[in-house]
Amino acid sequence: MRRFLHSIQTTYLILMMLFFSFVPSSAYGQSLIATTTLKVSICGDSIVNDGEECDVPGEIGTYSTTIAGRQCDTECQFGQYCGDSILQTLQGEECDDGNNIDNDFCAADCKIEPAATGGGNSSGGGGGGSSQPIGDTKISISGNAYPNRTVNILLDGDAIGTVRANSSGEFSFTIAADPGATTLGFWAVDNIGTRSITLTTTFDVTQGAITNVNGVLLPPTISLSDATVDPGDVITVRGQVPPNVAVEVYIDNKLSTTVTSATDGIWSATLNTAGLSLAEHIVKARYVKGSSTLKTESSYSTALQLFVGVEGRPSNNSDLNRDGRVDLIDFSILIFWWQTNGGDSDPPADINGNGNVSLEDFSILLFNWSG
After folding, report:
1. 110: phi > 0 → left, psi -120 to 50 → alpha, else beta; which?
2. Cis status of the peptide bond prior to 347, with omega within 30 of 0
3. What is the pTM of this model?
4. Fewer CB within 10 Å, N or C, the chain?
5. What are the backbone angles phi and psi of residue 124, rounded to the nearest 5°?
6. In the sheet where 234-240 sits, what is the strand order?
7. What pLDDT, in 10s, does the model give residues 150-203?
8. Residue range 250-294, pLDDT digits in tens
9. DSSP states of 60-125 as a string?
10. H or E segment and range at residue 237
């Protein structure tokens, strides 16, 4: 819950001098001195304070097709937009790789771009080396993806070929390259057609030498059996990773459960939504290989939206009856709990969470009023 006064910092400076009977009579007692500094932040004052991503009065966080056009919402956080690395399926996004750049297999408008045909100068993984001569300056790549699945490889944003991972999910690839700063990208599609994010890495290529890029871990694919559920519904989240690795599933950046992938790399987990609040949640996953000092972690998968009890739209803390509007009904609920701790209302009538339904909560409700 976002607080109307969401950042209050208090500092006390205490100076005390103690004198005993043996201190000369010229000495005197020093009284207690305390100073208090309050830092107040108000959403809607056109000033971006601590805890705020933005502050633009009048904007309501309407979905934007670009990062540049993103809007500020009524809680001073950026609303949904293409390029926020969260797959907004309700807005028609097919992918979201965190940018508005074309030719990286996720277009500037968050639509999947078709892969180029051909194998490029690939070798390893599924077999078959390049028939083209490779110069002295090379990049040698090895890593883990999904068993028997095709890995697409980009060099500085351009498709340079594909390589097939073996039954253990391992792949390797060698390509001639120009010296200097280089960016490689990797992505794949799992056994049911779910696309991974594009994993990128940037490094320097040395002239006249082989630059080795080892330990590439393609993040998991992830999908939900249902993205809009009632509280208490059980859903299934699944995907594909290398075989026999620990897959960690996170909800709102908190570890929810850990499962082990099968020999074909398939993993699935059941999630009971009974403990989740009525709101929009973010589900993502990563996997862990090895243990102790030899443990390595993949990057996170695509982040998926999960709507629990909010009919496919994020809830507003002031929408006390969760009908998508802040109006007289919500005002009536607020008045019912006036000068109490808010009882068991959900969401709490104590909107700012200070333990008392008062004018501060009423001010927040008016700020979000939609009529």
Report:
1. left
2. yes
3. 0.59
4. C
5. 85, -170
6. 223-224, 234-240, 266-272
7. 999 998 888 888 999 999 999 998 888 888 889 989 999 999 999 999 898 888
8. 999 999 999 999 999 999 999 999 888 888 899 999 999 877 777
9. ----BSSSTT--B-TTSSB--BTTSSEE-GGGT-S---SS--SSSSB-TTS-BPPPPPS-BS--ST
10. strand 234-240
Q: Label residue 252 exposed, middle or buried (CB < 10 Å: 0-12, 13-18, 19+).
A: middle
User: What's the N-to-C CA distance of the chain in angstroms?
Assistant: 22
Q: What is the pLDDT of residue 43?
A: 83
pLDDT tens digits along 55-86: 998 888 899 999 999 999 888 999 999 998 88
Q: Residue 314 pLDDT > 60, yes or no? A: no
Cβ-contact 124, 169 below 8 angstroms: no
- Among residues 305, 298, 303, the alpha carbon closest in space to that of 279 is found at 305
Token pair, residue 223, equals 């999908």
Q: Residues 220, 285: contact at Cβ < 8 Å?
A: yes
Residue carrying the six token digits 């205490």? 14
d(CA 93, CA 239): 19
According to the model, what pLDDT value does residue 210 have? 85
| Residues 6+ positions from 117 with CB-CB distance below 8 Å | none
